[in-house]
Each structure stands twice: as C-alpha cells, then as structure tokens.
Amino acid sequence: RVWATRKDPWVDRLASAWLIKRFIDPAAKFVWIGAPRERPRKAVGFDFDGAEFTHTRIRVTFEVLMASFGLDKDPAVAAIAAAVHFLDVGGIPISDARGLETLLRGIKEKARDDDALLAEAMRVLDHFHSAYARPGARVRARGFARRAGRQQEID
Fold it and tell me: How far is CA 142 from CA 72, 104, 105, in A?
C-alpha cells in the first residue's frame, strides 16, 4: 500500500511513518506531497488536512494511528507517543523527548531527501522502542513514571 504525507517531514510524520512500517503495514511505501491535492488516488493519507489519519482534538497523528490500529496497549509505543505528542504540540514534558528531537534534527541536517531522513529516523525510533520495551523500563513525565503500562507517582 502507498501512504502519502506532506514533504519535509518532522517528528509526528516521521514517527507516524515508523509506526506504519513497523506495526501497521510492513510493506508500506511513502509518497511525500507538497499539497493534499497531490496525493496519489489510492494512497492512504496521514498528517494533512483531509487525510484519513491526522490530528483530532487532543491527539497528534501518531496517537490517532496508534489508537486506530489497537497499538495503544504497547507500553513502548505509548512511551514514544508521549514524546511525539510533547514535541509536536506541547503538554506534559517527557524526559527523552529533547534527546529524540536532537537526534532527529541532526539526521535532518545530513539527509539528502525525505526518504533518507525516514530511513535514519526509523533506526532511531527502533532503538527508542527497544529501550522502552525492555523489562522494567521507565519513562518519566512530570511527576509520573510509566512502568510496564502502569502509571505511578514518583518523588
């Protein structure tokens, strides 16, 4: 299947493409468009006005995809979602979000095009997912720690 999103992707679009490729449609191909009207006829759109999957009320596109495909029960995916949400629209600070942003900014500076940018971002997000998926992994968010899918207050 072909998936279309706006060109010059940043955090939400990169993470959404990663989620699509890793968990939703492993054979996905991506098309980077300048405007919604450029979307190929049979392509599934994400993260632009009129797309099948895009921001809704309080959710960024990554969170919409995660919920739509039943991936919100995976604590590692949920941890990435929290960082993506914070970087895209603000909200509860996530300790690893700025590190993710810095890595993606460095990749964006070096990438020759959007496909190369996504290829490198995929590796980074794979590493984040692996770290969050390990037993006992903790993700800190202003006064809370998420451990194995539960939230606990921390000091």
Answer: 20, 23, 24
* CA–CA dist 129, 78 (Å, integer): 10
Residue type, 56: T
Q: Confidence class of residue 139 from pLDDT cuts 50, 70 and 90?
A: low
Cα–chain center distance at 109: 19
- Token pair for 153: 């207050």
CB of 65 closer than 8 Å to CB of 53: yes
Determine the average pLDDT of the residues in 119-126.
98
At 132, give phi and psi (nearest 5°): -75, -25
Measured CA to CA, the distance from residue 50 to residue 37 in angstroms comes to 10
Q: By percentage, how much of the chain surpasses pLDDT 70? A: 88
All residues at 6 or more sequence positions from 110 whose CB lies less than 8 Å from its CB, including other chains: 120
- Give kind and range of the element (H or E) at residue 94: none
- What is residue 50's predicted lDDT score, i.e. its pLDDT? 94
| pLDDT at site 138 | 64
